[in-house]
Amino acid sequence: MTSLPIERPSAVTAEWRDLFALTKPRVMTLVVFTGLCGLLAAPVPVHPVLGFTAVLCIALGAGAAGALNQWYEADLDKKMKRTAGRPLPAGRMEPRSALHFGVGLSAFSVVLMDIATNHLAAAILAVSILFYVVIYTVWLKRRTAQNIVIGGAAGAFPPLIGWAAATGDVTLLPVLLFAIIFLWTPPHFWALSLFVKSDYAAAGVPMMPVVAGLQSTRRQAFLYTLPMVAAAIAPWPLGLTGWIYGAASIALNALFLLFAAAVLANKATDPAKMKPEKRLFGYSVLYLFALFGALVIDARLIP
Amino acid sequence: MTDPLPDAEVRRRQAGRARVMALLLGLFVVLMFAITIAKMTINQ
Question: What residue intervals traverse the membrane (chain A) (predicted)?
Fold first, then answer.
């Protein structure tokens, strides 16, 4: 059999692994988990197939937003050690392929969400993708040190989408879940940016430590922790959750506050001496998993 | 400018993507069927 001549639309033919890497699979873990928790915490039973599809759509939407983010930021990624190995800056993929993949996956995730669940969940999913790509990536990231404060809203949508997929509406509890992730983002990202400051500075990204200095960043990270703690504990006294969530939330937030205070007290300028910052960053990820896990356990055990 | 890949490597990558795409399309068909059945069950 004679094989057809190879069509070469470009010099680079990406592997499927590169397309998968475009979706930022590691970031997606937290997005999927919080979306699933929003769905499971809702006070209505969800058909397993529809619940699975809703979480799949949240994951695909997040992956699509990640791909479009990498398409737009390929020039920045090339300048940072942490991101230089991604498919676009490493030259393993054509930018146009990444754009087509991101737009196609966005549309697919929203349409599938609408078919499987309801218009509200699909609409919030569409808004979250647009928010991450247009508001955060295109508009804010290169312009202001407050980029991740406002952009953090994009990562706060998944529990809202999960809840809306299950119930078809949005009440106070999912709004509080949104607020928790929204207010969690600044201390989480600023803890990271404190010890990778040189990387952001090299790329010219106006992250808080680059623009306002280390001490100001530590102070602001601590200040954002206070309303985050209030929002995280609030569901219990408001009667929206039971004592399991209340107890877990108080313990987890007390530890978060302690670690954020240790960051505030640290005066180090050398990343090697930023142990409190690294500890806060690591704990912040665990915190969100544990808090949302406690919410689901509480909702399932105390109906 | 990136050097063009050898033909064999381009073929290998295209084949890999085609296989993954076929698998995903198959899973999509199964998922759509399951969604349809789930919706019919709920409506009953």
Answer: 27-46, 52-72, 93-113, 119-139, 160-184, 221-238, 244-268, 280-302
Interface residue A44 vs chain B (CB under 8 A) = no
Q: Which of residues 1-44 of B touch A (CB under 8 A)?
A: 1-5, 7, 9-11, 13-14, 16-17, 20-21, 31, 34-35, 37-39, 41-42
Residues of B in contact with A12 (CB under 8 A): 2, 5
Domain that holds residue A231: 171-303
Measured between alpha carbons, how far is A218 from A212 in angstroms, rounded to an integer? 10
Q: Is residue A5 part of a domain?
A: no
Q: What's the domain count of chain A?
A: 2
pLDDT in tens, A22-51: 999 988 888 999 999 999 999 999 999 999
Query: Burial of A5 by CB count in 10 Å (0-12 exposed, 13-18 middle, 19+ buried)?
Result: exposed
Give the separation between CA A19 and CA A41, rounded to whole angstroms: 32
A36 burial (CB, 10 Å; 0-12 / 13-18 / 19+) is buried
Please judge whether A50 and B37 are an interchain contact, meaning their C-beta atoms are less than 8 angstroms apart: no
**Predicted ipTM of the assembly:** 0.82
Q: Of chain A residues 97-126, which have a CB less than 8 A from chain B?
A: 115-116
A93 touches chain B (CB under 8 A): no
Of A13, A49, A56, the CB nearest to B5: A13
Total domains in chain B come to: 1
Indicate yes or no: CB of B7 within 8 angstroms of CB of A6. yes
Under DSSP, the state recorded for A236 is: T
Domain span including residue B41:
19-44
Residue A1 lies in a domain: no
> Over the Cα atoms of chain A, what is R_g?
20
Taking a C-beta distance cutoff of 8 angstroms, is the pair A35, A55 a contact? yes
Could you read off the pLDDT of A260-282 as tens digits, one per residue?
999 999 998 888 889 999 999 99
d(CA A117, CA B29): 17
